[in-house]
Amino acid sequence: MKVIRSKRKRKMGEIDYGIFYSVALLLTIGVVMVYSASSYYSMFMFQDSMLFLKKQLISAVIGVVVMAIAMCFDYHKLKKYTLAIMIACIPLLLAVFLFKGTNGAQRWIVIGPLSLQPSEIAKYVVVLFLAVGLENKGEGVKKFTTGILPYLGVAGFYAAIVLAEKNLSIAGVIMIVTFIVLFAAGGKIKHLFGIVAPVMFAAATFFTLSSSYRSDRLLNFIDPWKDPADKGYQLIQSFYALGSGGVTGLGLGQSRQKTLYMPEPHNDFIFSIIGEELGLIGCICIITLFVIFIWRGINVAMKARDTYGTFLAIGITSIIAVQSLINIAVVTGSMPVTGVPLPFISYGGSALVINMAAVGILLNISRQIEGKEEIKEI
C-alpha cells in the first residue's frame, strides 16, 4: 500500500481554534465587564443599570453572526470590492462633520439610537488596500518612491481625515499598521527606519504639541498629580483602581472607582476596572489572551496560501495588537492618555462588530492555509 499526497488543496479546512477561543473569551469577558463597570454609572445617569449591557450584548450577537459569515466567505473575493469599499469609506468619514460633536471631537454618525464610527472602518480599509497593492507590487516595494511612498500616501490620506475628526489616536494606529505591513512586505530597513519612522515620529510630535489639549495630556502624563482635579484626574483614578485591586482583586462588581470617580469607566479605561475587580491575575489573563491571538494571527500570516492572505492577516492582527498595547499602556500610565478602546472589551457597538468581521476574515484565511492537503491511499 502506498500513501501519496495529492497536490490538490482542500477548498476549506478547519479554523484556527487559538484565534477563535481567545476572541470568544475576550468577548465574553468584555460583555460581563461592560455591565460591571457601567451599572452604577448608567443607573445614576439613565435610571437603567443594564442599559450599556443590553446595547453591548446586542452588538456582540451581531458581531458573532458577522464573524460567522465572514469566516465562510472566501477572502480572495474581497479583492474586487476593495476599490468600492475605499471610495465608500470617504463620504462616511466626511459625514461625521454633519453631526454634533462629543467632547470637542466629531467621530460619529448618529441616526436615532444607532451610531457608527467610520474611523473604525477606515483602519481595515487601509489594510485591504495594502494587501491588494503589495501583492501586485512584489519586489517593487524595495523602491522608496514607487514601492513605499504611494502606500504611505493613501494611508496618510485616510489618517488625515480621521485626524480632522480630532482622533489622533486612530490616525496613529492607521500609520503604525501601515508601517508594519510595509516592513513585512519586504520594505528596506533604511527606507522604513531611516526615513519613514523619523517622519512619523516628527508628525506625531507636531500634532501633539500644536494642540493645547493634546500637549496638556502629554505634560500631565509626566506628572498627573500636578493637576489632580482636572487634566490628571482620569489617570490618577486609573492608578487608584489598579492599586486597590492588588493581586486577586476586590471581586466582580466590587469596584469603587466606577461609582462616578472614573469618568465613563466602561469605555477606554475599562482595563483599570478589570484590574480593580479581578486584580493582577485578571489583568494577566486578559494580556495572555491577546498574546495568544497575536501569536496565532502571525502563525496564520506565515502559513497563508498566498501573499494577499499573508498581508491581510498581518494587517488585521496588527490592528488588534497595536490597539490593545496602546490601551493597556495608557491605563497603566506608560504613555500619554489617548482615546483607543480595548478591542473586544471596551464598550462600543460599531467597533465591536467591525473587529468581529475582521476576525472572521482572519479565520477564513486560517481555513485555507498551506499544507492542508488530502491524503490518498493506493
Write the layout of secondary structure elements.
Layout: E1 3-9, H1 17-46, H2 51-72, H3 82-95, E2 109-111, E3 114-116, H4 118-137, H5 144-164, H6 168-184, H7 189-209, H8 212-222, H9 233-245, H10 270-303, H11 307-331, H12 349-366, E4 373-377
Antiparallel strand pairs: 1-4, 2-3
Helix pairs in contact: 1-2, 1-10, 2-12, 3-4, 4-5, 4-6, 4-11, 5-6, 6-7, 6-11, 9-10, 10-11, 11-12
Function: Peptidoglycan polymerase that is essential for cell division.
Pfam families: FTSW_RODA_SPOVE
Protein name: Probable peptidoglycan glycosyltransferase FtsW
Write a structural description.
This protein is mainly alpha-helical and 378 residues long. The chain has one domain. It is 65% helix and 5% strand. It is built from twelve helices and four strands, in the order E-H-H-H-E-E-H-H-H-H-H-H-H-H-H-E. It has a two-stranded antiparallel sheet with strand order 1-4. Strands 2-3 form a two-stranded antiparallel ribbon. Helix 4 runs antiparallel to helix 5, helix 6 runs antiparallel to helix 7 and helix 10 packs antiparallel against helix 11. The longest helix is centred in the C-terminal third of the chain and has 34 residues. The termini are close together. InterPro entries: FtsW (IPR013437), FtsW/RodA (IPR001182), SpoVE (IPR013438). Its EC number is 2.4.99.28. Belongs to the SEDS family. FtsW subfamily. It holds the Pfam family FTSW_RODA_SPOVE. This is Probable peptidoglycan glycosyltransferase FtsW.
